[in-house]
Amino acid sequence: MRKLALKDNVLMQIDKSARYIGNEINSIMKKAEDVDIRYAFCFPDVYEIGMSHLGIQILYEMFNRRDDVWCERVYSPWPDLTAIMKEKKIPLFTLESQDPVKDFDFLGITLQYEMCYTNILQILELSDIPFMAKDRTEVHPIVMGGGPCTYNPEPIADFFDIFYIGEGEMQFDAIFDLYKEMKHSGHYSRREFLHEVAKIPGIYVPSLYEVTYDEKGFITKFAPIEEDIPTTIKRQVDMDMDHAPYPKKPLIPYVRATQDRVVLEIMRGCIRGCRFCQAGMVYRPNREKKLSTLKEYATEMLDNTGYEEISLSSLSSSDYSHLPEFIDYLIEECEKRHVNISLPSLRIDSFSLDVMSKVQDIKKSSLTFAPEAGSQRMRNVINKGLTKDVILNGAKQAFIGGWNKVKLYFMLGLPTETEEDIKAIPDLAEEMAELYYDTVPKEVRHGRCNINISTSFFVPKPFTPLQWASMLPAEEYLKRAGILKDHMREELNHKSISYQYHEAYTTVLEGVLARGDRKISKAILKAYEKGCYFDAWTEFFDPAKWDEAFAECGIDPDFYTIRERDLDEILPWDFIDVGITRSFFEREWDRAIHQQVITPNCRQQCSGCGCRSFEGGVCYEG
């Protein structure tokens, strides 16, 4: 009988015990004694969220192709189980073998959003691994971080032995080979491995770098402490999408995951160049998979899962050059299998609406527009590339096609934003609602038009043209949301429009964690000691505890948020080379703040961002 780390009496006490028993369909089982390297792959959030993450599925497949590696999974236990594990001293375990994480060679943690940072400490504590990398010995796993948050790893640098910068398909084999070679040589030591692995492209070992500050807290120098360690860490990019690892047999959870469907990645990168979007920058250049590759994967993944829906994954699906042919293939294939098709990230144009009318139940679906800003001036500032005519024409075509529910996503607190820009948001929604009633005859309407406005608050992320911008205090963000709400209620009074906005205090903390330096780690640890974790969940987030943590550590959060940064300032993430030149970011900053003009997308005109150095993708089309 297969062993379980949790006894029946524990499983009976907790919510959704299937999160912790493993043995899911398509999970990979090996014998520990048959492998040289054991890798525990962690998503530091609850199982349902982690099982929806495509990146882990890709690397899980890739690692386990090696006979000498067994990659297993671990997720953050929900607070009910966390309490029991602490009380009964149950060590955190992986799902496949149910073995303690502390017995593994590596603990890899994917960092998808900043609000999971305290969960990293939850994982380490439950695994009986010291919080601080400097306190770990030969008996502890190598703790490794990867994912989009590593584009500024400094706020959590003290907790990690290694960071991987870029796409994991490129250098993990070199890391495993080095570790295995050193272990077999009989001369392995933790310190020597970290020294040697730091020479592999894309690998950052924080303990081998030193940061110097001036009396005001500004960085004056960031440099390696040894001569043979690189001064710059270069982002790793896989330019061969068709031969990159991809899970033809994806894991199928027992508990319904957030993304409960086949997810097929059709391309990476984006041609659009939105100036607020970190993903659109750091996943450049735009790289497509061949149509034949996608057809093969779609068929095999549906065969191997039994899912009733397939979703296309990309930053902008409409920009995939073979989308019409692929959609035709999917429609034919999915009709035979009675499988639904989900098409996120589509621009709302006549082609997209025609496609969606074929694959969606019009009566149940809603369409999503992301104008991001209400006025044309603000859309120019952020390089959104949408005019009001384009937005309204898309809405008109949707209404004619039978849709009556629309979600509109905007940001508040963008650089140069005025009260007029804020009021332009509900004004645009009202024009859209009026268009519905003017366009669709009463006798053919599917009920009342429903337009939902949703606003998030702007965070200037590293490696975007707006990385130098200031943020606003939480109270100012809320004031701007109030201006929008009051204008909608007092001036428009349209029953078809509703409004909701994100948590302002969460946004400000996200800004500190995204833009901070190494000093922030003290506050993260202090907040965790006060009971903060699962901060991404509204019911657990406690801003007062974070305020206390910053105060007790002598850290002023405003230093990292409300201050506009100088172009010649050393930023905490400047030691990373993402393949986009500093001069490009500076030009785009000027075009945003001073010129307020659009930069054409990559297929219209090369903007000279530097990505031609990767020698492929959209940079070399035509």
Detailed description of the structure:
It is a single chain. Among the domains are: 8-234, Cobalamin-binding domain (Rossmann fold, 3-Layer(aba) Sandwich), CATH 3.40.50; 361-502, Transcription Regulator spoIIAA, CATH 3.30.750. A six-stranded mixed sheet has the order 2-1-3-4-5-6. Strands 15-16-17-18 form a four-stranded parallel sheet. It is of the alpha/beta class and 622 residues long. Helix 14 packs parallel to helix 15. 34% of the residues lie in helices and 14% in strands. It has helices spanning 8-11, 47-50, 54-64, 79-88, 117-126, 172-185, 190-197, 278-282, 291-305, 323-337, 350-359, 376-381, 388-401, 419-439, 474-492, 504-515, 520-529, 543-552, 582-595, and strands at residues 37-43, 69-75, 106-110, 142-146, 162-164, 203-204, 209-213, 219-224, 233-234, 262-265, 267-268, 287-288, 309-313, 340-342, 367-372, 405-412, 450-457, 497-501, 576-577. The longest helix is centred in the C-terminal third of the chain and has 21 residues, at 419-439.
Indicate the topology.
Blueprint: H1 8-11, E1 37-43, H2 47-50, H3 54-64, E2 69-75, H4 79-88, E3 106-110, H5 117-126, E4 142-146, E5 162-164, H6 172-185, H7 190-197, E6 203-204, E7 209-213, E8 219-224, E9 233-234, E10 262-265, E11 267-268, H8 278-282, E12 287-288, H9 291-305, E13 309-313, H10 323-337, E14 340-342, H11 350-359, E15 367-372, H12 376-381, H13 388-401, E16 405-412, H14 419-439, E17 450-457, H15 474-492, E18 497-501, H16 504-515, H17 520-529, H18 543-552, E19 576-577, H19 582-595
Parallel strand pairs: 1-2, 1-3, 3-4, 4-5, 9-19, 10-13, 13-14, 15-16, 16-17, 17-18
Antiparallel strand pairs: 5-6, 7-8, 11-12
Helix pairs in contact: 5-17, 9-10, 11-13, 13-14, 14-15, 15-16, 17-18
